[in-house]
Amino acid sequence: MSADIAFIGLGNMGLPMAQNLVKAGYSVSGHDLVKASVDKLVETGGVTEADAMAAVTKAKVVITMLPASKHVESIYLGDKGILANIKPGTLLIDCSTIAPESARKVAAAALEKGFTMLDAPVSGGTGGATAGTLTFMVGGTDDGFGLARPYLEKMGKAIYHAGGSGSGQTVKVCNNMLLGILMIGTSEAIRLGIANGMDPKVLSEVMSKSSGRNWTLEVYNPCPGVMETAPASKGYAGGFGVDLMLKDLGLAVENALATGSSVPMGSLARNLYDIHSKSGAGGLDFSSVFNMLAKAK
Ligand code: NAD
């Protein structure tokens, strides 16, 4: 049986996203370098495929959720790539976070072959991927957006058409640069309060109702024990890794250089997450940057 949707990249985000498409009634074949991830999708209703690439070539929609630009370019482009092998009319949706120029390059190559391709990166983390409440920021044509929307709605709650090709990635890069900066600022403020004898819960609650309020303070507090559901209270496990934040800040700084923009805070944030990653924290949630700011004992 051939699937409606071929979903490539069943990692922390891709697997629950693909599972939500299955729950919505689509037949979905999953593909990943890690066989155990494909098995997990099959266990939860995904289609079993003997030949992964053949399944991709038969699908009506191909969705990718891969780590970075190089993975996306290599899987779509070239003689063995998706674009050279899919059937006419296949809709292509890349949900990975990659460089806007890389998204435009792959979409232009798709258009040259007559395919509609959208960049549709997401916000909302693994919790949002599981709950089907992701925010999608989509770049591409109006028609393409209309075709992709029914699928995106099964994985997300807020679906925005940001503009032409690459716009989804531009919004994502801007958002994550701000998020990375805010997490460091929130951590500094809480550390300062603690150093003055404040209870971080009380401090966070008051700041959440004051002008310093922001998502990292209210929903994803970096101080262990303040918020039961936040990664900080679970040993900084799961969530959004330091190395992924580092990647996104790298995209922001690269893009700023290419467009002549000034991002002094974004550059500083990138350097701080880089130092944090090199200290061995790359796999922890990015809110663990709070630990970097601990007072010397
Ligand atoms: P992940 O590393 O958990 O998953 C990526 C998956 O892609 C892995 O399972 C890997 O085996 C697979 N893969 C790599 N190359 C492949 C190939 N050639 N063929 C098939 N599979 C391949 O990463 P993730 O956390 O799921 O993130 C995916 C993307 O979503 C990234 O671009 C990330 O920046 C973005 N993102 C992540 C989060 C988050 O909270 N984790 C939030 C928003 C956006």
Describe it for me?
- Pathway: Amino-acid degradation; L-valine degradation.
- Belongs to the HIBADH-related family.
- The chain has a five-stranded parallel beta sheet, with helices on both faces. The protein has a three-stranded mixed beta sheet with strand order 6-7-8.
- It has two domains: 160 residues, Rossmann fold, CATH 3.40.50; 123 residues, N-(1-d-carboxylethyl)-l-norvaline Dehydrogenase, domain 2.
- The model has no long low-confidence stretch (mean pLDDT 95).
- It is built from 14 helices and eight strands.
- Strand 7, helix 8 and strand 8 form a beta-alpha-beta unit.
- The protein is 51% helix and 12% strand.
- The longest helix is centred in the middle third of the chain and has 29 residues.
- The termini are far apart.
- It is globular.
- The chain is an alpha/beta fold and 297 residues long.
- Bound molecules: nicotinamide-adenine-dinucleotide (NAD).
- Nicotinamide-adenine-dinucleotide binds next to helix 4 and helix 7.
Topology of helices and strands:
Blueprint: E1 5-8, H1 14-23, E2 28-31, H2 35-43, H3 52-58, E3 61-64, H4 69-76, H5 82-85, E4 91-94, H6 100-112, E5 116-119, E6 122-123, H7 125-131, E7 134-139, H8 142-153, E8 156-163, H9 167-195, H10 200-208, H11 215-218, H12 242-259, H13 264-281, H14 289-292
Parallel strand pairs: 1-2, 1-3, 3-4, 4-5, 7-8
Antiparallel strand pairs: 6-7
Nicotinamide-adenine-dinucleotide is lined by residues 8-14, 31-34, 37, 65-67, 71, 75, 96-97, 122, 125-126, 240, 244.
Rg from Cα: 20 Å
Please trace the helix and strand order, writing H or E for each element. EHEHHEHHEHEEHEHEHHHHHH
Q: Can you list the strand order of the major beta sheet?
A: 2-1-3-4-5
Uncertain regions: pLDDT < 50 for 5+ in a row?
none
The percent range for strand residues is: 5-15%
Number of helices: 14
Q: Quick check: average pLDDT?
A: 95
CATH C-level category of the largest domain: Alpha Beta
CATH topology of the largest domain: Rossmann fold
List bound small molecules.
nicotinamide-adenine-dinucleotide
Number of domains: 2
CATH architecture of the largest domain: 3-Layer(aba) Sandwich
CATH superfamily of the largest domain: NAD(P)-binding Rossmann-like Domain
Termini Cα gap: 62 Å
